[in-house]
Every structure is written in structure tokens, then in C-alpha cells.
Amino acid sequence: MTAATPTKAFPVSTKDSARAIQTSTMGSTLADVLERVLDKGIVIAGDISVSVANTELLNIRIRLLISSVDKAREIGVNWWENNPHFSAQTQSLLESNRQLQERVESLEAELRGLRSLPPQPVKTSDPALDSFNQELLGI
Question: DSSP assignment, residue 50?
Fold first, then answer.
């Protein structure tokens, strides 16, 4: 067996520590970094493509924006303000939509009933027009 040789720790001189690279996050807490990201915003973009023999089978585009609400509004991203799923008006819109669907179904049923009735001749004051109407209706 071979004995492991001890390694010597070399102390870092004050000269080397003074030349250390300063980074923007050095000494920052997670809260500081998060505040900076939310204030400035960050965009992550990527494309994923799956191909077999030059035939594209799947293409996924990923776009992610991380920012504060104020910063998003400032750059014109405010889709959540008008989306009914994120609005307090969701229930009233859903109820209104249900009522409209019921009314459409009722009108469609009435229209089907009217279409199933035999055609009725239309009487006018002009006998020539009456005969023309009857000829058109096949009566």
C-alpha cells in the first residue's frame, strides 16, 4: 500500500486577496439577488426540436420572463389583467356564458321545429303572386 502524502496549505497573501475578482453578487444575499432580478427583469428563451431523418417531429419554443409586476407593466406585458381566468369577474362571465348557451340551444330547437312544419301558402291580394308563391313552394 502506498501512504498518502500530506498536502501543504499555502496561505493566500494579502496581495492575492486584493487582486480577487469582484462579482456583482459577491456579498449579496438571495433576497438582494432576487430584488435585482425582479427590478431589472430577466428573459430566458430557448428552442427544442426533435427530428428524425431531416423530418421535424416536435418543435417547442420556450419563452420565460421573470420580472416584477411593475416592470412587466412598464414593458407592456399585462395579459393577466384582461384574462377572465385571473379576474374577479370569472363567475359572472361563466354564468352569462351559460345563459347565452341555453338561449342558443332553445332558439335552435325552435328553428328545428319550424323547419319540420309543412310549408304554408302565403296569401296576398294579388292572385298572380299567390299562384307564383304556390309554384315556388311546390303546393
Answer: E
